[in-house]
């Protein structure tokens, strides 16, 4: 499986990559939404973990653009990562919410569900 991790914080990207590496999945990293979109124009992924608050292009704008790019093709699962529980998010555009700080077990469970589908 191939997973895209999008977060402006290097530490958060590396932690997610370490967890993804446990499963021996390929992990590509981007530091903002614009970089994410550029990568998605060239490559396909089995899932995306997307931070919300990032410079250049935030996660919500990136998710909106991803859905526009993919319609009506296959829909890549997007999991929002944020420290803000109270975000008003349109749940039609994303597939799950991961609260920071996240646990290894939570990410492992998400990866297992993705693999089943």
Characterise the protein shown here.
This protein has 117 residues and is an alpha/beta fold. The protein has a single domain (2-116), classed as Response regulator (Rossmann fold), CATH 3.40.50.2300. It is 39% helix and 21% strand. The chain is built from four helices and five strands. A five-stranded parallel beta sheet has the order 2-1-3-4-5. Strand 3, helix 3 (59-70) and strand 4 (78-82) form a beta-alpha-beta unit. Helix 2 runs parallel beside helix 3. The longest helix is centred in the N-terminal third of the chain and has 13 residues, at 10-22. It is globular and about 30 Å long. The termini are close together. The mean pLDDT is 89.
| CATH architecture descriptor name | 3-Layer(aba) Sandwich
Taking all residues together, what is the mean pLDDT? 89
Output the CATH homologous superfamily.
Response regulator
Counting helices, strands and paired strands, the structural category is: alpha/beta
Query: Largest sheet, described in full?
Result: 5 strands, parallel
Low-pLDDT segments: none
Question: How many independent structural domains?
Answer: 1
Cα separation of the termini: 11 Å
* Cα-based radius of gyration, to the nearest Å: 13 Å
Sheet-strand content, in percent, reads 15-25%
The CATH class designation is Alpha Beta
| Total DSSP E strands | 5
SSE arrangement, N to C: EHEHEHEEH
- What's the helix count? 4
- The third-level CATH topology is Rossmann fold
Basic shape: globular
Helix content: 25-40%
């Amino acid at each position: 499986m191939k997973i895209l991790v999008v977060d402006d914080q290097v530490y958060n990207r590396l932690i997610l990559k370490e967890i993804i590496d446990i499963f021996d999945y390929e992990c590509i990293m981007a530091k903002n939404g614009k970089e994410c979109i550029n990568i998605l124009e060239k490559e396909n992924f089995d899932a995306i973990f997307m931070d919300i608050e990032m410079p250049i292009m935030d996660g919500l704008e990136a998710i909106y653009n991803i859905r526009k790019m993919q319609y009506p093709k296959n829909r890549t699962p997007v999991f929002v990562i944020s420290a803000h529980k109270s975000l008003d998010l349109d749940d039609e555009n994303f597939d799950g919410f991961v609260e920071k700080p996240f646990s290894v077990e939570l990410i492992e469970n998400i990866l297992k569900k993705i693999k089943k589908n």
